[in-house]
Amino acid sequence: MPIRKANAEWKGNLVQGTGTISTESGVLKNIAYNFVSRFETGTETNPEELIGAAHSACYSMAFANNLAKAGFTVNSIKTDAKVYIEKLEAGFTITKIELDTVGDVQGIDENKFLEFAEQTKTTCPVSRAITGPALILKASLKK
What we know:
Blueprint: E1 6-11, E2 18-23, E3 31-34, H1 35-39, H2 47-69, E4 73-88, E5 91-106, H3 110-123, H4 125-130
Antiparallel strand pairs: 1-2, 2-3, 4-5
């Protein structure tokens, strides 16, 4: 399986500093982020927004796959994500992610749809990552 790569660079202190985010694919290249966009309201992106995008994309794909494997025809699955960040005693913390999913699926009733929606919470790779992945850190100081 491929290893997906991304990078970010932050320059300066937390409040006045700025950063850029890039992905190996080049889809995101030097995309700006900063304090205002993360903790207030700004026009650049932020890590929580990117987590929400990744989670909603992954969940939609996993949900569609689970339904299709069960024989249902999936016209579309649209998932909106809300990622909550709060300042707690331990520091800023993502405290909750809400996924709101709407499916256009042929031949399924509401109860079965909801059953598959709940099941997908445990089969979506990003959902599983958020609930406790191994974290491997490589750190070095620029010489």
